Amino acid sequence: MNRIEFIAVTAIILLLAFAMGWFTYWLLHRFTRVAGGDMAEMDRLAQSLHEAEELRDQAMVYMESREGELMNHIAQTEAELRAAMEGLRDARQEAEEMRAYIERMQANG
Question: What does each C-alpha distance from 100 to 76, 93, 95 come to in angstroms?
Fold first, then answer.
């Protein structure tokens, strides 16, 4: 192989390598690029996600405050129940003492 043939073969090999590289780049760019319409859709989805996160945070704050209110209400109701039970116990004890007193009076009388 003489010098001119070597240069021609090398030039053809380099041209083929360049063409293959360019074609590979074109394919990758074609499959991975985001079209303008897709970008608008992504922006809309990102905005929707942001709004959903804000709503979730507001719901969590409301839920926590409502839970606190309900816990306070339960505590108050339990305190009232304890007071009512003590009052009922005292009333039963007093009624029992009155029965015993009446029975003693009838037995004596």
Answer: 36, 11, 9
Residues 6+ apart with CB under 8 A from 9: 1
pTM of the model: 0.49
* DSSP state letter for 34: -
pLDDT by residue (tens digit) across 63-97? 999 999 999 999 999 999 999 999 999 999 999 99
Over the chain, what is the mean pLDDT? 92
Largest CA distance in the chain: 150
Cα dist from 24 to 12, 14, 36, whole Å: 18, 15, 23
Q: Coil, strand, or helix at residue 108?
A: helix
Tell me how far apart the alpha carbons of residues 97 and 71 are, in angstroms, rounded to a whole number.
39
- The confidence score (pLDDT) of residue 107 equals 87
Which residues form the domain of 63? 37-108
15 and 54 together in one domain:
no
Tokens coding 86: 């003590």
Same domain, 1 and 14: yes
